[in-house]
Amino acid sequence: MFVYLCDSENCRMEIVLEILKFIVPAILVLIVTYFMLNSFMDNEEKRRVYHLRRETRKNALPIRLQAYERLTLLLERISPNSLLLRVPGTQLKAGIYHSMLLQTIRAEYEHNLAQQVYITPESWQLVKSAKDSVIGLINRCAKKVDPDAPATELTNLILNTYMKYEVPPTERAIEYLKHELKTDF
Q: Which of 55, 75, 100, 130 has the smallest number of CB atoms closer than 10 Å to its CB?
């Protein structure tokens, strides 16, 4: 072990310089190591997040596809030409048949409410709009028919009014869902 015994200013300066020769490189190595480790940890975190998202997407894909299928089926089922065939009303009065049609649409819609989680807000808004349009169509037609008239009068009026649409709301929503599905997948 060296012991410096010097009283001169030069000697003290040499000691300080000798100490700085070791401390400055050590500090520089420490700073570089810190930034390298920090960068490495950031990259590792990004890599983990990327793999987690990729795995989540892989697992969610079948569920999203099923949501598009179910909503397309919903729109097909509430379309008046399909709805009127599925809900028989030949022996009923128009007022009761009107209530049955609305109840069927609402039940179909409520059964598929959870599907909105898996599609875009624009798609869900279009599905809701199509449902509301069909309900509005049925309500407008029901106002024009006497509630005690045969349900066939209401059925004919709904179908005739529905056929006047250039692009029915349910078909517009289905086309949008198909387009979105093609662009996303």
A: 55
